[in-house]
Amino acid sequence: MVTWLVRKYINFKNRYNNIGENTQLNISSNIDRKSKVGSYCYIGKNSHITKAKIGNYCSIANNVAIGQGEHDIKLNSTSSLFYENTYEELTKENCIIEHDVWIGTGAVVLRGVVIGTGAVIGANAVVTKDIPPYAIAVGCPAKVIKYRFEEDRIRNLLASNWWDFELTQVKELFRKMS
What we know:
- The structure is a single chain.
- The chain is α/β, with parallel strands linked by helices.
- 22% of the residues lie in helices and 22% in strands.
- The strands form three sheets. Strands 1-4-7-10-13-15-16 form a seven-stranded mixed β-sheet, with no helix packed on it.
- It is globular and about 60 Å long.
- Belongs to the transferase hexapeptide repeat family.
- Pfam families: Hexapep.
């Protein structure tokens, strides 16, 4: 029993060597080998991430789908049986989730989308196009309803590159910025 658990843990660690330090990944979630997740992130239950690059300090809730395969509706059939390389053809474009992004429960981010630093994606939103930094986007399809901060503050936050620092340094920087 102990040997089996050790082997399972080693397989889990080897499978997810593309995950940054201090990132919490719920065991029921799936991140494919072509994805990369930064440090200090949280990924909730039953989330599925395909061909995505996720920055540091991101919060991804339960039941989120990022970069999942999309069937080509212009072909005679939508069945994946007609693809030469199903995985590659269904997931052609990578998703980029920049830093400090919060994605709410049940959201879907289509392949090829870029979500800017500091953005918030509402629960059950379907993100079909790029979202700018510090925007709040909700709905199906997701639309920007407002920005988290004024332009000057957004510019200062983006210029600080705070997401490149360790947590203790970030806390100190934010204390000084308040």
